[in-house]
């Protein structure tokens, strides 16, 4: 039996490998980024550098141009002392070129090499400044900039420890994005739960065309989110949108343009679009739970004189809690991570009034190319999702375990 148990456990190894590669590794990678000032738009921070490093290619290019420009101005440099300083600088640049011969890209260097590079940079900087004061050089403007590239070729460590996490507590945009995310999540999920439960109870009744009704009700959920958001953006359009015009006519908004151009209107519009799309999914999960409740319980309740309302609260809701837990958990976590719907519909506007944590993290990582701080925002989302899941399991899961 032990051999059979051991052999049986081997079958789960491929699953564990897939989980590790496609789930755990990306999370671990994102967690690693949070400890670095990792920015792709800054060449000195475009990697994860624990120690000081050296950009060999940048230094080699700078050294070549310095040699070339100084040779072009050799006739203009008349004082013998300055000529000797130029030759000494060129000699030291060549020595460093020789030391890094065969190397390319960004490499690690020791403290002694770092001191040598800094020494050459300071010498070149002082010499070029002196030559520009005394002589009219052909490349008087370009030469100082190229010399500065020697200093830029030294890449300092971008390990910042917990500084990115500290920044979260002083970032006002995080607070706004978290508030918007929580409002969107709990309002949309609450409405979806009520409507979804009503739809599930209707679809659970025996009626003609039951299969067609169940299938057609899932059409909104089957539509890709980006397509649904684009469709609703036309309906919400202030100049020709049917829904915007309808809301204005019945007095919900002053003008059709207010629906997407005001903070409250845009959040309401995004919530309604999400409710329309995902209520069928909530109904499907709850319908599966309703079908597990034995019909005999309702028959017994009717015999005992229980009304339909009493049966709903005494039989349906208690026995539906396991399915409700799954439905609420799935939908809340999905709504908390909302991105494509709001990105297509409002882009997080107007003025950040619909900007969620997902939208904010996307802007930081891909618009600002700041993957270090952007990963911290993702970790904030991870913690919030874990807290929400724990609360649901504690509140609903405890009752489910007691019933079982």
TrEMBL record:
Transmembrane segments: 182-203, 215-235, 312-330, 371-393
The species this protein was found in: Thalassobacillus hwangdonensis
Domain of life: Bacteria
InterPro entries: ABC_transporter_permease (IPR051393), MetI-like (IPR000515), MetI-like_sf (IPR035906)
Record-stated family: Belongs to the binding-protein-dependent transport system permease family.
UniProt protein name: Carbohydrate ABC transporter permease
Main location: membrane
Topology within the bilayer: Multi-pass membrane protein
CDD domains: TM_PBP2
Residues in coiled coil: 79-141
Chain ranges of the ABC transmembrane type-1 domain: 178-392
UniProt KW keywords: Cell membrane, Coiled coil, Membrane, Transmembrane, Transmembrane helix, Transport
Compartment annotation: Cell membrane
Signal sequence residues: none
């Amino acid at each position: 039996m032990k051999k059979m148990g051991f052999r049986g456990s081997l079958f789960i190894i491929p699953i564990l490998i897939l989980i590790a590669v496609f789930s755990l590794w990306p999370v671990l990678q994102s967690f690693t980024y949070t400890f670095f000032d990792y920015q792709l738009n800054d060449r000195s921070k475009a990697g994860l550098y624990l120690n000081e490093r050296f950009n060999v290619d940048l230094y080699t290019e700078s050294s070549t141009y310095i040699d070339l420009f100084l040779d072009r101005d050799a006739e203009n440099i008349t004082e013998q002392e300055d000529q000797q300083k130029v030759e000494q600088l060129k000699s030291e640049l060549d020595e460093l070129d020789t030391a890094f011969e065969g190397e390319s890209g960004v490499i690690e260097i020791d403290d002694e090499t770092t001191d040598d590079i800094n020494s050459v940079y300071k010498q070149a900087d002082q010499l070029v400044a002196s030559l520009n004061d005394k002589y009219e050089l052909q490349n008087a403007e370009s030469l100082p900039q190229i010399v500065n590239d020697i200093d830029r070729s030294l890449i300092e460590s971008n390990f910042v420890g917990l500084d990115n996490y500290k920044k979260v507590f002083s970032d006002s945009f995080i607070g706004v994005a978290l508030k918007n995310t929580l409002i969107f999540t709990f309002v949309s999920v609450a409405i979806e739960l009520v409507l979804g439960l009503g739809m599930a109870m209707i679809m659970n009744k025996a009626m003609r065309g039951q299969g067609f009704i169940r299938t057609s009700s899932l059409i909104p959920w089957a539509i890709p989110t980006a397509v649904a958001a684009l469709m609703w953006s036309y309906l919400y359009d202030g100049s020709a949108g049917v829904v915007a015009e309808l809301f204005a006519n019945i007095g919900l908004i002053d003008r059709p343009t207010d629906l997407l151009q005001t903070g409250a209107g845009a959040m309401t519009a995004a919530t309604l679009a999400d409710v329309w799309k995902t209520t069928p999914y909530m109904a499907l999960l709850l319908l599966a739970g309703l079908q597990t409740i034995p019909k005999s319980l309702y028959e017994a309740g009717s015999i005992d004189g229980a009304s339909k309302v009493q049966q709903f609260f005494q039989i349906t809701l208690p026995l539906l809690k396991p399915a409700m837990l799954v439905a609420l958990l799935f939908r809340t976590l999905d709504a908390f991570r909302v991105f494509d719907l709001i990105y297509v519909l409002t882009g997080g506007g107007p003025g950040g009034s619909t900007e969620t944590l997902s939208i904010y993290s996307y802007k930081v990582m891909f618009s600002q190319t700041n993957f270090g701080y952007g990963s911290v925002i993702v970790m904030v989302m991870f913690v919030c999702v874990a807290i929400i899941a724990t609360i649901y399991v504690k509140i609903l899961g405890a009752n489910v375990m007691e019933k079982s």
